[in-house]
Amino acid sequence: MEDATSIPRHIRVATPSPTVAAKSTDLLRNSMTSPSTRLLNTPATESTTTQAKSGGCGCDSPSSATVERDQKLEERIAKHPCYSEDAHHHYARLHVAVAPACNIQCNYCNRKYDCANESRPGVVSELLTPEEAAHKALVIGGKIPQMTVVGIAGPGDPLANPEKTFRTFELIAAQAPDIKLCLSTNGLMLPDYIDRIKQLNIDHVTITINMVDPEIGAKIYPWVHYNRKRYRGIEGARILHERQMEGLQALKDADILCKVNSVMIPGINDHHLVEVNRVIREKGAFLHNIMPLISAPEHGTHFGLIGQRGPTPKELKEVQDNCSGNMKMMRHCRQCRADAVGLLGEDRSQEFSKEKFLEMTPEYDMEKRQEVHQGIEKFKEELKVAKDKALEGKKFANSPKILVAVATKGGGLVNQHFGHAKEFQIYEVDGKDARFVGHRKIDQYCQGGYGEEASFEYIMKAIADCKAVLVSKIGNSPQEKLQKAGIQSIEAYDVIEKVALEFYEQYVQELEIKE
C-alpha cells in the first residue's frame, strides 16, 4: 500500500534562466524562449527505453483522407479557446450580451442582467446594443490582441433575439474580419436560421442538448415557447428535442462546426448522457462538453431552491471518460458568464464595463494582432518540443494513473503562486503521458490574513484525490497542511507536462522503494 509520507514532502525545481521572456499569459511578444528547468534531487539519467514506432504494414494507420480531414478541422479550431484545448492556454474570447430574451425555461437557469459577482452562464453586468457590442469588440481586440473569438451566448438565447444577434455579427465582421464569430443556442430556432448563419460565416455553433428522451427532458424544462404557444412537460420537451436534432443535422450539412453542451444533473440525466453522446455523434457534432450542474439557493434557480445537487468531480470525470471513446470531449469549459472577457479561467469584464469601454477609442491594428498570433504560435511550437522531449523514453512497468493539480495563469506553464490561484487545472499522469482532464474552481487562499482556514478546507475538498500540487511558489503554512493531507507541493516554472512527468518519475521510484 502506498504511503504518502515516504515521498519527499516538497520537491523544488531550479528557477528559469533570466533569458526566459515574460509569462506566456502576457502574450504581447514576437518570440519566447521556453523555460528550461530540472527537478533537483532527481538524477539526470539517460533513458534506456524508446517510444514504440508504428509497424510498417500500415494496417492501423489512418487513411490519407482521414488525416487530411483532421488537419483541416485542426486549422479551423486552432485559435478558438472553447473548441481547442490547446488554444485555451493562449487565446482569449469575448462574449457580448445582446440577447436578453429566451424561448425556453431551464430548471438550472435564472438570467440576471445587472450582476457582477456571479460566474455562471446567463449572468451579465449590463446589456448592450449591437452597436455597443461591436465597439466593445474593437476596443478589446486592440487591447487584448490574443482575443480571437467573439461569441453571443445570452444572457438569453441568441436565436430568440435574431435581429440583435445578426446585426452584432454584421458590424463586427465588417470591421474585424480576422475575428471568429460563434453563437451558443438551445437549438429551438436553429433550423430556421442555418442559411443566415452560413451567410455571415459563423463557423462555430454550440447547442445545449441535455436529453434525447422527452420524458427526461420534462424534468429539466418546465416549458418551451414555440410558434407563439407555450408547451409544457413532455410535449414541450419533445418539440425541443426534434428541433435540436433537425438543427444539428442542418449544421452538419452546411459544414458548420458544432459543439454540444450537456449539463450533468445527478439523478436526472447522468446515466442518460452516454445515449446523448451516441446520438449527437451520429448527427455530426464533433465535440461534446459535459458540464456540472451549478446549483445554489442564492442563484434563484428551481434546482438550486429544491436542493438538487451537482456532480462531484469524480462523478463528472467518470461520465466524461465513459463518453470519451466515442468522440472528442471538452474538459476545459469554465461555464462562462454571458459577458466574459479574456482567457478561459479569467474574467476581465469589469475592466471593460460599458462606462469604461464607451470612452475608449478602438486601436484595432490587424498587423499588430497578426504579429502577436505569430509569437503565440512560435511559443506553442517551443512548448511542443519541450513536451515531446519530456515524453521521450517515459515508460514504467505497471504504472498507476494519478492526478495532479496545477496552478497556472495560462500558456501551458506552471506559473502561478498557490495562494493566488482561483482554480486548478487537473492532469492525469501515468508512465507515458500527462493529460489535461479538467479544472476545479477554488477560493483564493491568500486573503490578507482573513478567511484562509476556510479557504484551505475548500481547496482540500477540491483536490483531495490529487497526489501533488504544481505551483510557481507556495508558503510554508499551506505547504505543511498539504503534506499532512498526503499531497506533495512542487515548486516550478516550466512546461506543465514536463513538471508532472518528472514528479511522477520520482513518485514511482519512491513507491518501488517502499514496496
What does this structure look like?
Helix content is 33%, strand content 16%. With 515 residues, the protein is of the alpha/beta class. Helix 2 packs parallel to helix 3 and helix 11 runs parallel beside helix 14. The chain has 14 helices and 19 strands.
**Annotation field: number of helices:** 14
What is the CA-atom radius of gyration, in angstroms?
Answer: 23 Å
For the record, give the distance between the C-alpha atoms at the N and C termini, rounded to a whole number. Answer: 8 Å
The SS-based structural class is: alpha/beta
Layout: helices, strands, pairs:
Blueprint: E1 10-12, H1 64-77, E2 92-95, E3 104-105, H2 130-143, E4 147-152, H3 162-175, E5 180-185, H4 194-199, E6 204-208, H5 214-217, E7 223-226, E8 229-232, H6 233-253, E9 257-264, H7 273-283, E10 287-292, H8 302-306, H9 313-324, E11 328-329, E12 341-342, H10 354-357, H11 366-391, E13 402-406, E14 413-414, E15 423-429, E16 434-441, H12 452-463, E17 468-471, H13 476-484, E18 488-491, E19 494-495, H14 496-514
Parallel strand pairs: 1-18, 2-4, 4-5, 5-6, 6-9, 9-10, 10-11, 13-17, 17-18
Antiparallel strand pairs: 2-12, 3-7, 7-8, 13-15, 14-19, 15-16
Task: Briefly characterize the structure.
This protein is α/β, with parallel strands linked by helices and 515 residues long.
Name some characteristics of this structure.
515 residues, alpha/beta, eight-stranded mixed β-sheet, globular, six-stranded mixed β-sheet, disordered N terminus
